[in-house]
Design goal:
The chain has about 200 residues and is an all-alpha fold. Helix 1 packs across helix 2, helix 2 packs across helix 8 and helix 3 packs across helix 4. The protein is elongated.
Length: about 200
Amino acid sequence: MTDRVQPDVQGLRTLLDRLDSDLHCAAGKYYRLVGILTIFIENRATSDIDSDELARKVLDIVAAKLAEGEDIQNVQAYSFGVARNLVNAQTKKSISDRLDNSFVSGIRDDRQPSFEAIAKEVEEDCRRKCLELLPAERRDLIVRYYQTGLQSKRYREELARELSIGVDALFNRISRIKSKLNECYRRCVRAGRDNAIPW
């Protein structure tokens, strides 16, 4: 369990203001950011790290830095920089070691990737994770079906013959696998946000 930094009320207000001028929208963006940070951390941290708790700690640190008057132009990118530093520190130290704000020193938010780039990276992680969750036989089938340049009618016929099924049955099987992958992907991307919202 990580030690939570307790930002003052002003830091939290400043953080919410930076996310959106409308408080309700800012709260939604805050919880979405917690969700995306959670997935980001889960994909990089060891299993003994509580990703949700660490994501909240990241935003506590950012809020504390804002309260200290630090000029953070891109809150989301800065948050991912803090998360990256904390995960790196957690993997090098015991989970029981105390973490402090020193991990944010030297982070320049203008050098961090954009929020959109990080979100895209999280989405790619979700795609990879969902593909890995498929049974090996289905994963191999979908990968073979979509190999570059091999979507020709002749190739699909050969693949169907190899599986002892018709081309229509192959298409139906691929459609079912794609449907499962899409469902897994949607759940993965929104999982952190949905679990973090307290209402």
